[in-house]
Fold this protein.
Amino acid sequence: METRAPYVLIGTFVLAAILAVFGFVYWLNNSGGIGPRTNYHVQFQGPVPGLLVGAGVLFNGIRVGEVTQLGLAPDNPRFVSATISVASATPVRSDTKVGLDFQGLTGVPVVTLEGGMIVAKSGESLTLIAEAGAGQSMTQAARDALRRVDSVLEDNSGPLKDTIANFKTFSDGLARNTDKIDGILAGLEKMTGGGAPAQKITYDLRTPQDLGRVGKTLTASLAIPEPTAVAMLQTQRMLFSPVGDIKGFADFLWADSIPKLVQARLIDSFENYDIAHAPLRATDLGQAEYQLLIDIRHFRIATEGEPRVEIGLSARIVDKNGKVIASRMVESTEKLDKIEPAAAVAAFDAAFARIARELIGWTVQAV
């Protein structure tokens, strides 16, 4: 009994192992993913590099089976026929798209299935036709593209040579005419307002210094607000009558707009006459007893006939109640020997000096 016991144990263990193997195979066949299968024929219209029996079959990216057979189509050796075995529950249709994909770093090929809505008739043998070029790898696609490019270049070698020659001729022409092209571009830039802005030259109106002996002085507070003027006079440019573009004045600028400039120089003139009783700007003084209101009529160069500078002002003195107590038109002209900025400014200085003297004398008498 003692010598037979180990044989019984060994036999029992072997029998249990055999039963376990059969049980595993049964489980794998029914629950482990093999289960019922359906075979389909697939035809590739070209080479399928690397595809082997046992390669995976994916439906919408999910593995559903494998390739069970590969061979060349008997009627056309260029085509490859394959048989795939997939799970019966896979919704393969007669219009399901078939392709070949290369996965992983090693580029292992797998058959891919996608979509499909048309259900095959019962009992009909279903053959899936892969798209043209489905078995083409990225390397092959690149090679084919390069072949096509090379073919196009070869077929058009003559026109390409002519085009390159024309480009060379054009570039040589540009090189020979670089200075002219630079001049054209500079002209266009200037015409469109681009490039560095031209340097403007600013001119000031000089205040008269010799206004005579101080006689009667201002006994009441006086303010000189900014003169009024039409929009054309609200500028720093030199104005001409008739209006025109006079050569030499393109870069001319007064130190301020004409009304502000006249206001400042009139106040300066009153200060040069009697600084102790000189008027101020309206904003500096507040409520003054009197205001000297100036309206600028002319401040220009007249070019008709004899060239001359013309300054024309309308002056009114009003009290703090708004009553006009005196009014006067003051005008002055100065001959111009030469129409150019420096001579014009000198003529404006002379004409303005006469106006300033007349306004000061009239104002101190009226207030």
About this structure: The helical segments are 5-30, 138-155, 157-176, 178-191, 258-274, 282-285, 341-366. The radius of gyration is 52 Å.
